[in-house]
Write a structure and sequence with these properties.
The complex is a heterodimer of chains A (327) and B (369). Chain A is built from ten helices and 13 strands. Chain A has 327 residues and is α/β, with parallel strands linked by helices. In chain A, the strands form three sheets. A five-stranded mixed beta sheet of chain A has the order 3-2-1-4-5, sandwiched between helices. Chain A has a five-stranded mixed beta sheet with strand order 8-7-6-9-10. The mean pLDDT of chain A is 83. Chain B has two domains: 133 residues, Rossmann fold (3-Layer(aba) Sandwich); 164 residues, Rossmann fold. By secondary structure, chain B is an alpha/beta fold. In chain B, the strands form two sheets. A four-stranded parallel beta sheet of chain B has the order 5-4-6-7, with helices on both faces. Chain B has a three-stranded parallel beta sheet with strand order 1-2-3, sandwiched between helices. The longest helix of chain B has 29 residues. Classes of the chains: A alpha/beta (327), B alpha/beta (369). At the A-B interface, α3 and β8 of A face α2, α14 and α15 of B. Chain A: InterPro entries: ATPase_BadF (IPR002731), ATPase_NBD (IPR043129), CoA_E_activase_dom (IPR008275), Dehydratase_Activator_Redct (IPR051805).
Chain lengths: 327, 369
């Protein structure tokens, strides 16, 4: 019987599930796409990770993060619900000694996290701009007609970079089309796009911040060798991409769950059997005031589990009361 | 004459009392909601700052209830707010509403035309009556601001989360139904006492955050997505740098006499920003330093997208963050109603502050040994 901790990161693009043992070793990881159906993705993730691990395991704690963290926590029975920034920071601290800066680029947001003396001292997230995130790259790759997986390798082949405007996704796209029409070759354009994205990241998020090494680059986009190279060229220092770079958020959750389990020795985990339960999501528009909140209801096998989406908390509180009465 | 006015945090309570006391029929616009914003964005120039859009929404919703006159305060500050009344008049005209505008600019020394406008609004020339009403409204303004402070103090300490807001939200529902100084001030005092008597959890570690930035966005809860409640329920005591009560005293009573209560704040900002750049840019800097000196754990700046004075302040604040060792977070609000990303940033910021404080405490213990 191995004690382990479960970490789940439900992001906009991917849902990641990680199992970690007491010695902070990763014994299983699943990276699956969310495709707008977080509940299915969570169930799929749990099923796959159960299949990966042969030994008998005992889950001692569960942590969830990502934009779907509350949903995940409700379904799986989470002990810790944490925002992505803290989760990513904690994961990097445990895997790279003395890390001082983290670049994290995911599907819909990018962040920079500064760590000093082992704690997060500052962070920034993209505010009003989506240029330079994973979904932007995805789109451009499909425009050029290449697989996103080949993107980075192609950029490395470039010998003569084309300059592409990187301030705004709209400018970048039209600039790119012009350069294509001029006949520049594909590698150079792709490298230009990587440079533009890095420039955008450093100007937008890194502005006024002291970027010190060691620097860790994580998140889905870290798999892209072209972006990593552009970062190294811009900052003139080495960038580390950790082996589990795409599931760092989930790893952070495992670590947080472990910390919590040491303090409190029980878990809310509902067991792997929940993959067999049927979950339905219903929604209705509350018409009690002019906000017209769209309230979402999550049902498990016909029983109401949670509600959210209401500004005044009238509906969500009601469920809590009902559950308390039942318990 | 049925008078209405734009929303701005708790200010409506005082304005309502002022008009009630002057026996002017008035309509408080419905609480800001998605509808308000939808109406506003539909009829406003796309690139104008958010407060104007919400204002327009407020007017239209009040007009639907029968309002025919709008009172608006101007600000002497050279920011776009100074042109709000002119632009709003044009917008209302373009929409085909025949509406009276009464502009209550702070007198700036010209008391004659100031009082002419007041006489037009009040239909009385009895200065005693006007001054009495004004004094009562000011008193209510200070009382609601006190209520705000008390609830900000209590929220992170309450034993059962949400209890403060039962009274707080209850107040806003009830106050619309009552009239005049006596009833309103009684209700506010009751609410303050109720909130004060909520049991506290003595073991709570309370983090203190100062909220700085553009005045409208930091005090209007709909626009800043209820930052006071959100932070309060995360265990944070929130202090807001600008309050209407203070603004009123400053502009209506002190400035004409060439006095100012903001001198200390302005002096603090001096090494970073010597001159007035419009809006509250200089105050934002000054208050950030003030909060750092008062031992707050962090500051959060909020401003509407495209607000020039705050953009200038934003570029200076990282230097203050370094010089005074106080973490800083910037939030830009616009027509967003999705709260996930916003809450993530707040949560992460609060986490950062808690960890910092824990580290600080263990450092002190170590150095003592």
């Amino acid at each position: 019987m191995i004690n382990c901790y479960l970490g789940i990161d439900v992001g906009s693009v991917s849902t990641n599930v990680v199992l970690m043992n007491d010695d902070k070793e990763i014994i299983g990881k699943v990276y699956t796409s969310t495709q707008g159906k977080p509940i299915d993705a969570i169930k799929r993730g749990l099923k796959e990770i159960k299949a990966q691990v042969r030994d008998e395991i005992k889950v001692k704690g569960v942590g969830t993060t990502g934009s779907g963290r509350h949903l995940a926590s409700m379904i799986v029975g989470g002990d810790v619900v944490k925002n992505e920034i803290t989760a990513h920071g904690i994961a990097a601290l445990n895997f790279v000694k003395g890390v001082k800066t983290i670049f994290e680029i995911g599907g819909q947001d990018s962040k920079i996290i500064l760590l000093r003396d082992g704690i997060i001292s500052d962070f920034a997230m993209n505010t009003v701009c989506a240029a330079g995130t994973g979904s932007f790259l995805d789109r451009q790759a499909s425009r050029i007609g290449i697989e996103i997986q080949e993107f980075g390798e192609l950029a490395l082949k470039s010998k003569n970079t084309v300059r592409i405007a990187g301030r705004c996704a709209v400018f970048a796209e039209s600039d790119m089309i012009h350069k294509q029409q001029l006949g520049h070759n594909q590698e150079d354009i792709i490298k230009g796009l990587c440079d533009a994205l890095v420039r955008n990241f450093l100007n937008n998020l890194g502005k006024g911040k002291e970027i010190l090494g060691p620097i860790v680059f994580q998140g889905g986009v870290a798999a892209n060798a072209g972006i990593k190279k552009s970062f190294e060229e811009a900052l003139k220092q080495e960038i580390y991409v950790p082996p589990h770079h795409n599931v760092m958020g989930a790893i952070g959750c495992c670590l947080l769950a472990q910390e919590k389990a040491e303090k409190k020795n029980t878990t809310q985990f509902k067991g792997f059997d929940i993959v067999n339960s049927g979950y339905q999501v219903k929604g209705f528009e509350c018409e009690d005031c002019s906000n017209l909140c769209e309230v979402v209801e999550i049902m498990r096998d016909g029983q109401l589990m949670a509600r959210w989406g209401d500004k005044c908390c009238k509906w969500s509180d009601k469920v809590k009361d009902d559950i308390e009465k039942l318990a | 004459m049925k008078v209405t006015f734009p929303h701005m945090g708790n200010q409506y309570v005082a304005t309502k009392v002022l008009l009630d006391e002057l026996e002017v029929e008035n309509i408080v616009p419905p609480e800001c909601s998605k509808d308000t914003l939808d109406i506003g964005t539909q009829h406003s120039p796309e690139s104008i700052c958010l407060p104007l859009k919400v204002n327009i929404g407020n007017y239209i919703e009040s007009i639907k209830q029968g309002a025919d006159t709008i009172i608006l305060t101007g600000s002497c500050g050279p920011c776009r707010f100074g042109y709000y009344s002119i632009l709003q008049k044009e917008i209302m005209k373009a929409m085909g509403h025949n509406i009276n505008f009464i502009l209550l600019d702070p007198p700036q020394g010209d008391y004659k035309s100031f009082f002419a406008r007041i006489f037009k609004l009040t239909n009385t020339k009895n200065p005693y009556k006007i001054i009495k009403a004004l004094a009562k409204a000011t008193r209510v303004l200070y009382l609601v601001d006190e209520m705000e402070e008390v609830s900000c103090y209590k929220r992170p300490r309450q034993k059962k989360i949400g209890e403060v807001d039962i009274y707080y939200d209850g107040f806003h529902k009830k106050v619309r139904k009552i009239h005049g100084y006596r009833e309103v001030s009684k209700l506010i005092k009751e609410t303050i006492n109720n909130i004060k008597s909520i049991p506290e959890d003595p073991n709570r570690e309370v983090i203190k955050i100062g909220v700085i930035g553009e005045i409208y966005t930091i005090i209007e809860p709909f626009v800043n997505l209820n930052i006071h409640k959100k932070l309060g329920n995360m265990g944070v005591e929130v202090s807001t740098s600008l309050k209407i009560s203070r603004w009123l005293t400053e502009h209506l009573y002190l400035q004409p006499l060439k006095l100012t209560g903001e001198k200390k704040i302005r002096n603090m900002a001096k090494p970073y920003l010597k001159t007035m750049i419009g809006g509250h840019g200089r105050e934002t800097i000054g208050h950030a330093i003030d909060y750092a000196k008062r031992g707050f754990d962090g500051v959060i700046q909020i401003y509407p997208f495209t607000c020039m004075p705050e953009i200038v302040a934003q570029s200076i604040l990282p230097t203050i963050e370094k010089d005074f060792d106080i973490p800083y977070l910037c939030l830009i609000v616009d027509e967003l109603t999705g709260e996930a990303g916003y809450t993530t940033r707040l949560e992460a910021f609060v986490d950062l502050l808690i960890r910092r404080r824990e580290m600080g405490i263990s450092d002190k213990l170590l150095s003592r040994n």
